[in-house]
Amino acid sequence: MLDYDVEAARYDATRGGVPRARSAARAVLALVPEPAGTLLDVGCGTGLVSERLMRPGLRVFGVDASSGMLGAAAGRLGPAVVQGDCRRLPFADDSLDAVSAVWLLHLLPDAPAVVAECARVLRPGGTFVTTVDKDAAHDVHSDVDRLIAPFRVRRANDAASRITAVASEHGLRRVGEARFTGHGQGRSPARMAGDVQRGYFASALLLDEETSGTLVKELALLPDPEVPRGDPVYRLLALRKES
Ligand SMILES: C[S@@+](CC[C@H](N)C(=O)[O-])C[C@H]1O[C@@H](n2cnc3c(N)ncnc32)[C@H](O)[C@@H]1O
């Protein structure tokens, strides 16, 4: 995983900024029936998305492990952000109306433990909304994607089938899904090469030093090296805690 304390300074500018955050927040809220009461955004990062979940009558909290990311989130959400591990959330059992996790589970080999923890803190009838199959969304059939396809991990941490199965073991039933556009996430060959070199795709691609070097050289041969390819569309699942 990237070092998010280091990543914090460039995070908002490189992850689609407000347009991506707005489309993500809108899709999350569309899956929460009558958003009111409390919502915890797990792995809230800089709070770019969390801030856009705020509504009159809905109190939004954020949890993240990275102090660098939380520094930015605190500026957006104030004292409602707390440093913590999403596998041990600092919230009581059955205490929250909704929990969201945007772009989190794909990073974590022990994603099932996070799903269990989100189920624990949700009240009966509450909703957990999470991105699934995040890395697969980057496969937009461009020339860049064709080059990286052979290196993709076969079993994603956030595979929808895996998350749905684990969720059901913890009393969460799948009730809906939505999609949102990853504005600014369609990569040019040059940007992809830079991201491969700095380990951005550690959870998505199986690369060693040699194969990374070969891939970077092949990316450099593609036409229009600075032109971004199509934006990915990400998938969210809604899971309701049984009453
Ligand atoms: C890709 S960012 C997503 C941030 C935000 N949800 C967004 O969509 O902009 C992933 C975030 O998960 C956080 N994270 C990773 N592992 C974590 C863990 N075990 N507990 C809490 N947060 C974690 C990272 O610090 C980072 O801020």
Number of domains: 1
Bound molecules: S-adenosylmethionine
The CATH superfamily title: Vaccinia Virus protein VP39
Going by helix content, strand content and strand pairing, the class is alpha/beta
**Total of helices:** 9
Rg, nearest Å: 18 Å
* Residue-averaged pLDDT: 94
- Which stretches are low in confidence, meaning pLDDT under 50 for 5 or more residues running? none
CATH fold call: Rossmann fold
Fraction of residues in helix: 25-40%
Q: What's the count of strands?
A: 7
Largest sheet: 7 strands, mixed
Q: What general outline do the C-alpha atoms trace?
A: globular
- What would CATH call the architecture? 3-Layer(aba) Sandwich
CATH class, named: Alpha Beta
User: Kindly, what is the distance between the CA atoms of the first and last residues, rounded to a whole number of angstroms?
Assistant: 36 Å
- Trace the largest sheet across and list its strands: 3-2-1-4-5-7-6
Order of helices and strands: HHEHEHEEHEHHEHHE
**DSSP strand content:** 15-25%
Give a structural overview:
- It is a single chain.
- With 243 residues, this protein is an alpha/beta fold.
- The chain has a single domain, classed as Rossmann fold (3-Layer(aba) Sandwich).
- It is built from 9 helices and 7 strands.
- A 7-stranded mixed sheet has the order 3-2-1-4-5-7-6, sandwiched between helices.
- The longest helix has 14 residues.
- The radius of gyration is 18 Å and the shape is globular.
- The model has no long low-confidence stretch (mean pLDDT 94).
- The chain binds S-adenosylmethionine.
- The site of S-adenosylmethionine (SAM) has 17 residues, from helix 3.
